[in-house]
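Annex B. Sample input.
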Amino acid sequence: MEISIKQSNQLKSIAILMMLCLHLFNTDYKGVFQPLLFFENQPLSYYISLFCDACVPIFAFVTGYGLYFKYQKNQHNYFRDNIVRLKKLYINYWIIILIFVLGLGMLVLKSRGYPWSWEKLFLNLTAIKTTYNGAWWFLTIYVLFVLTSEFWFWLLEKLNPYLYLLALGIIYLFAFYFRVKKPDLFSVPVLNDIQMQMSKFFMTLFQFMLGALALKLKWNTKISKIFTKIKYKNTVSVLGIVVLIVIYPLTPNFIIALITGLAFIFFFCHLQLPEIIQKSIDFFTPHATNMWLVHMFFLPHIFSKADL
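Annex B, continued. Sample output.
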């Protein structure tokens, strides 16, 4: 059995909630809140927030999975449908800019770089450079995915999927190097901006295409066959997620976040959640995009001492 639409939406909601946890608790808590549980002089919430760094790999995976499903279902109208999808996203995005930047931003949040210049406004409206809100960096990447995904899926149909995966993995490592080790390779700022965007894109592309590959190669179905032989599936899945939370803080980085994010997806897909928990997760589904786009307007001001 492959990942259902319901599970995909739940995973997107969880990824957004993980992002909120990361931005809330992966910071200096002193003067902001008082944790109750500590481990080695750090609150437990801090270690959980470290694991939540897997939010981007999870969201990118599910996005790739969902778009490839739509590509397989209707290749003829795929690009047109994507344009409609982007149109709806941009309208939602522009409304948020209108409210939080051109409205509240100019009146209340001038310390964040408002009021705006026309150049800054244009770059943000188009999502070419999202300087109004740090969490919007993924919006640019998402738009590029939607616009170019038909090409990447076409390659997936033409090439050996395992060799394709290997090539994307190598590109991921190069992008990782230039994003983390050589972020300012050029002396010209605009070239450094292009380099950083390309590094983010090709790092996230690997995560995105893992979702498409998972659907093409039916990874979840194969894992389900293993789980049918396990008596206590829920216990194993919960323990697996707990182990991921414990392991990740030992070596936190983008590569480990990718592995833990992928493992979390398949553990989650084999959980039999109580109805009340499923409904709680489903509640966030229609609000997930807005939670992502607006939360960083609030956090730095509500938690003013946090390094967000």
